[in-house]
């Protein structure tokens, strides 16, 4: 599936790049991904933040935090967000539930919490945990819900 490779690559790069490298490496990584996949990718590791794709669905609540990587392709989106703490990540999950998203599954993987939700229009995989530096990092993947 064409979308899974960029999602997997972006998630892996996010944890690898967060706080570790400067802009020249980011530009190199972004350029390589964009050239190979045709996907517009935004990765930022200097703490100033990246941005969500311009067409990120407005009915998907996105928690407050610093976006460190994101991309969107063919109506599928991914974002990695550095959160203030685990409570802020939980508040983002609570906002999805309050907006009418229903939990399909949840797991605590020993330091990483993962939730799969849907509202009938969008499916959201919402997971968070600590990176190697003690920062809380959230990954959101947003895909059209099966009809």
Task: Describe the 3D structure.
This protein is an alpha+beta fold and 147 residues long. It has a single domain (4-144), classed as Protein Transport Mog1p, Chain A. Helices cover 29% and strands 35% of the residues. The protein has three helices and seven strands; from the N terminus they run H-H-E-E-E-H-E-E-E-E. It has helices spanning 4-17, 23-37, 86-98, and strands spanning 40-43, 66-73, 76-83, 102-108, 112-118, 122-130, 136-144. A seven-stranded antiparallel beta sheet has the order 1-2-3-7-6-5-4, with helices on both faces. The radius of gyration is 15 Å and the shape is globular. The two termini are 18 Å apart.
Task: Label this structure with key terms.
147 residues; Protein Transport Mog1p, Chain A; 7-stranded antiparallel β-sheet; 3 helices; 7 strands; 29% helix
CATH topology: the name is Protein Transport Mog1p, Chain A
Widest sheet, order of strands: 1-2-3-7-6-5-4
CATH first level: Alpha Beta
Give me the number of helical elements: 3
- CATH A-level architecture: 3-Layer(aba) Sandwich
Order of helices and strands: HHEEEHEEEE
The overall strand count is 7
Give the helix proportion (percent range). 25-40%
Total tally of structural domains = 1
Outline: globular
First-to-last CA distance: 18 Å
Mean of all residue-level pLDDT scores: 78
Largest sheet, strands/sense/barrel: 7 strands, antiparallel
Question: Which segments are poorly predicted (pLDDT under 50) over 5 or more consecutive residues?
Answer: 1-29
